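Example record

The entry below shows one chain as it appears in the dataset: sequence first, then structure tokens.
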Amino acid sequence: MAVSITSSGGTSCIIEAMATFPTSMALQYDACTALLNLILQKENLVTIGSKHGINTIINCLCQFSTNVHIGEKVCIIVAAISSALPQALFVLSNHAIVNHLVDCMYQFPQSGTIQIACSEVLLNLSVNNFFGFENIYLGRKGIDRLCTAMTQHPDNSMVLEKASLVIGKIISAAQSNIMVDNSVGKQMIEFMGRHQSDVNIQVCSISVLFALSLNDRNNKAVIAGLGGISAIISTMQTHLHSPLIQEKGCQVLWSLCVLETNQVAVGEYGGIQVIVNSMKEHLAVVEVQTEALGALKALAALISNKDMIINCGGIDSIVETMLVHFENEKIIQSCFGTLSNISVNPYTNRVKVISRAELNAVVDSMG
């Protein structure tokens, strides 16, 4: 039935009717209901997702901005378009359209449907680099709305995942002071504790913490002060078998350990053993090894951590990594750099003694 409607021009007629009678609530509601059923067919989506179709649907959203039922239908339709039609993202990236979607999220904070659908659109725009995040006003407004959505739907995993994914993308492209005002780090850490068994939420939350910490020393200290280090280590312990969590966890610990106080904290919370365990569990995974080696190298800058890394089996793990990844030049270089940091005490100018087997592995890698 849906295909026959399209082939006979029915979908275009619905769009035209909406454009012709923009103030008729009954017509707009029925038209959105019809389009909601029609989007299940790709052929219909192409028509609905045209520039004219998108502008007509968004106009309906603006015209009846206080009608939650129309709002939900429109947002679902737009989300479907953004996911299925890459060519439609250029139209959707228009500042006014993005602003209308964010306003809709503000208007109906209790509607999980609207929060998920709008987050989906923002995510698709950000992943495909269509969203102009350099716009400070829109960046601040979008983050504020996404954070509020997460607060109001703390047990809705879909809202949390999509909102945090978008936040991570915005943080990566925008100025860090936007994020500090919204206490994003605090929310991420709270949700990590609230949804400990949900791998996706853990990955999303850790990714946001990494984005926050990457180029901002103050954020590194704030995250630690909020309990972020212990939360990350706890997640890595709980999800040892997840290579993605281990990769992201080591990555953010590496970033945080630029600060000496965080190097101390990671050691005190048992993070070094967790990183070594991660290397052992995912020996064949290049991404995990890369991030873990970086984290250990940063941690080894602290004298008290050097012995801890050795006692936790760190050198043995690094040697194993060299043996498995002997053809990967970047991994081998990381191994050498990490071993060097672990072995040398810059204050006493003394070098740690390693076993013959470990030395042989290093020499073999050089050959």
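Notes for this example: The two ends are 69 Å apart (CA to CA). The first strand starts at residue 344 and ends at 345.
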